[in-house]
Specification:
Length: 78
């Protein structure tokens, strides 16, 4: 994923750990204890996620979609 995001965004990705605030993560972790789980979201500093005036820059959506496509393409051939 880091290589795909580097290609799509033109800079190295960063990681952030958030403790299981999304219940589905716990279901996946319990059901597939050996699986690696990655959650990706479309968010940039001005998005104001969960605020009344929430928005996302279309360029962020484009870069995230490209990141996912590149990752899945490479993962499928690994």
């Amino acid at each position: 994923m880091s290589a795909a995001m580097l290609e799509a965004y033109g800079r190295p990705m960063t990681t952030l750990g958030q403790g299981g605030s999304i219940p589905l993560c716990n279901v996946f972790a319990d059901t597939y204890p050996d699986a690696e789980i990655i959650l990706l979201g479309v968010e940039e500093p001005l998005a104001l996620i969960h605020a009344p005036n929430e928005s996302v820059d279309p360029n962020e959506i484009k870069a995230m979609a490209l990141s996912l496509a590149l990752f899945l393409q490479r993962y499928a051939t690994a």
